[in-house]
Write a structure and sequence with these properties.
Length: 470
C-alpha cells in the first residue's frame, strides 16, 4: 500500500472537484485528485454537454419545418438520429481535454484513477493508495434516481447516463418525469422525429412559476409532445420495442423508456460513517459547506441543495478560501440562476412570485414585461415570452423569464441580485437596440412608471417648473 500525504484531497473529478483541484494546485497546495470513473463527471459525459448538443440538433430540424412565416418554404427534414448523437459525442470529445488527466497533471495535481473510501476521519484508501490529507473535499456528484416501480427491473430502460449511447431512433419515447431533463429530451426527440409521451406523477415543471411553465408546456404540446400529468407510474411491463407503463391516469405504450424522475447523491462508496460524516440522502453540510467532520467539505450535487454545474463550480470557488487561506466563506443560493433549455427557455433566479408573496406579503411589487413589446423578438417571430421581476424595497429578490434566450437574459439579473443592487441599476443601463436584452430594462422601468406618470405631485412640480423656468 502506497502512503501519500497531501494538503488537499479531492474525491471526484466533476465540475466541483476540478474547480478545487485546479485552483488549489495553481496557488501552491499539494493536491491529490481521485476519480474512479470519467473525468469531467456527469455534466461533460452524460448531462449538460450532450443534452445541449442534442437540443441543438433538434433546433436545426425544427427550423426546416417552420420557415413559412419568413417566406421560406418549410420542408420535412431527413434526420439521421445516429449522426445527431455523433454530434453530441464530438462535442464531448472537443471539450474533454479541458477536464483530462493530462491537463490536471500538467497543473501539478496528482491524479489517481480510483474510487475513494474513508477508513477514518482524515484517511482515504483508493486502490493501493492510502492517503492522509489536511483537508478533504467530497465532490462525487449525483446519478439518476430510479424509483422502485413494479416490473421496471425486467424492462429495458434508459437514464441520462445511457440515452446518449442509443443510436437507434426511438419510434415512440416514453419519459417518466416532467422535470427539466424530461422536458428537454422530450422536445429534442419530437423535433428529431420520434413520438414522445411524458408521464408525470404530479405537475410537469412543477418547481417553476406556473404561469411561465404553462407557456413552455403549451409550446411542447403544439409541437406534438403528449404530456400526461397526475399520472403516477404503478407498473411497467414489456420488452425492447414494446413497453407499457400503467398509471393511475391511463396506460401508455411506446418503444423506448427514459427514466427522468430526479437525482441521488453518490455517497455509497465513501464509507462516510468511518469519517464521522453525517448524511441522509445527501451529505449534511453547513453554510460553509463543511461536514460534521471539520476537516472535510462536501460540494456540488453530493451536498444536496441546487444541483447544477454552475453551483458546483461556485461551491468549489467558495471552499478554496478557507482551505488555502483559513478565511471564512459561506455559500449562498439566493443569487443562483437556473435554466430549463426548452424552446422557449425558462430561467429563474431567487424567489418565484408565489415564494416572494409568501415571504414578503404586501411589500412585494411584481414588475412584468412581455416579449410582444420587444422589437427584436417581433422581428424574429419569437414574441411569445414574459419577464417577471419581484421587487422589495427597490431591490429585486427574484426574476422569472420565459422566452427566447432566457438563459442568457437571466445573467444580468444574476449580477444584480448577487451584488444586492437596486432596480435603478437596470433602469440606468443603456441597452443596445434592437436586442432581447431590452426586455429587462423595460421590466425594470415598470417600477418607476407609476411613481412618475401617475403622481400628482410630479405633475405639479413639472407644471411649476414649466411656468417659471426661463
Amino acid at each position: 500500500m502506497q502512503e501519500i500525504k497531501t494538503d488537499v484531497l479531492v474525491i471526484g473529478a466533476g465540475s466541483a472537484g476540478l474547480s478545487v483541484a485546479a485552483g488549489a494546485s495553481q496557488m501552491g497546495a499539494d493536491v491529490t485528485l481521485l476519480e474512479g470513473h470519467l473525468m469531467g463527471g456527469d455534466c461533460l459525459n452524460y448531462g449538460c454537454v450532450p443534452s445541449k448538443a442534442l437540443i441543438a440538433a433538434g433546433k436545426h430540424a425544427q427550423a426546416m419545418r417552420s420557415g413559412a412565416k419568413f417566406g421560406v418554404s418549410p420542408v420535412k427534414p431527413k434526420v439521421d438520429y445516429a449522426a445527431a448523437k455523433g454530434h453530441a459525442r464530438k462535442v464531448i470529445e472537443t471539450i474533454a481535454p479541458v477536464d483530462s488527466v493530462e491537463r490536471f497533471e500538467g497543473l501539478g495535481v496528482r491524479v489517481i484513477k480510483e474510487y475513494g473510501t474513508f477508513t477514518d476521519r482524515d484517511t482515504v484508501v483508493a486502490g493501493n493508495h492510502r492517503i492522509t490529507a489536511r483537508r478533504i473535499v467530497i465532490a462525487t456528484g449525483s446519478s439518476p434516481f430510479v424509483p422502485p416501480i413494479d416490473g421496471l427491473d425486467d424492462v429495458p430502460f434508459h437514464t441520462n447516463e445511457t440515452l446518449f449511447d442509443l443510436m437507434e431512433q426511438p419510434d415512440h419515447l416514453l419519459i417518466i418525469g416532467g422535470g427539466p431533463i424530461g422536458m428537454e429530451m422530450a422536445q429534442a426527440h419530437i423535433r428529431l422525429g420520434s413520438k414522445v409521451t411524458v408521464i408525470e406523477g404530479a405537475k410537469a415543471m412543477g418547481k417553476d412559476d406556473p404561469e411561465l411553465a404553462e407557456m413552455v408546456l403549451r409550446n411542447l404540446r403544439a409541437e406534438g409532445v403528449e404530456i400526461v400529468e397526475g399520472a403516477k407510474a404503478g407498473k411497467i411491463s414489456g420488452k425492447a420495442g414494446a413497453i407499457t407503463v400503467q398509471t393511475d391516469n391511463g396506460t401508455f405504450k411506446g418503444s423506448h423508456l427514459l427514466m427522468a424522475v430526479g437525482r441521488k447523491a453518490n455517497i455509497e462508496k465513501l464509507n462516510l460513517d468511518a469519517a464521522g460524516i453525517e448524511h441522509d440522502r445527501a451529505i449534511r453540510v453547513g453554510a460553509d459547506l463543511r461536514t460534521t467532520n471539520r476537516r472535510v467539505y462536501a460540494i456540488g450535487d453530493v451536498a444536496g441543495g441546487l444541483q447544477f454545474t454552475h453551483v458546483a463550480g461556485y461551491h468549489g470557488a467558495t471552499v478554496i478560501r478557507p482551505i488555502l487561506f483559513g478565511l471564512p466563506a459561506k455559500a449562498r443560493e439566493d443569487h443562483v440562476p437556473w435554466v430549463t433549455y426548452t424552446d422557449p427557455e425558462l430561467a429563474q433566479i431567487g424567489l418565484t412570485e408565489a415564494q416572494a408573496r409568501e415571504a414578503h406579503g404586501d411589500r412585494l411589487e411584481v414588475l412584468r414585461s412581455g416579449f410582444e413589446e420587444n422589437d427584436r423578438a417581433i422581428a424574429e417571430g419569437r414574441a411569445e415570452g414574459l419577464i417577471k421581476v419581484m421587487v422589495v424595497n427597490k431591490r429585486p429578490v427574484g426574476v422569472s423569464i420565459v422566452g427566447p434566450h432566457a438563459g442568457e437574459l437571466i445573467g444580468l439579473w444574476a449580477l444584480v441580485i448577487a451584488n444586492k443592487l437596486k432596480i435603478g441599476a437596470v433602469t440606468n443601463m443603456v441597452a443596445p437596440y434592437p436586442t432581447l436584452g431590452e426586455v429587462s430594462k423595460r421590466a425594470a422601468g415598470q417600477y418607476y412608471a407609476p411613481r412618475l406618470f401617475d403622481s400628482q405631485l410630479v405633475k405639479a412640480v413639472v407644471g411649476f417648473v414649466q411656468r417659471w423656468m426661463p
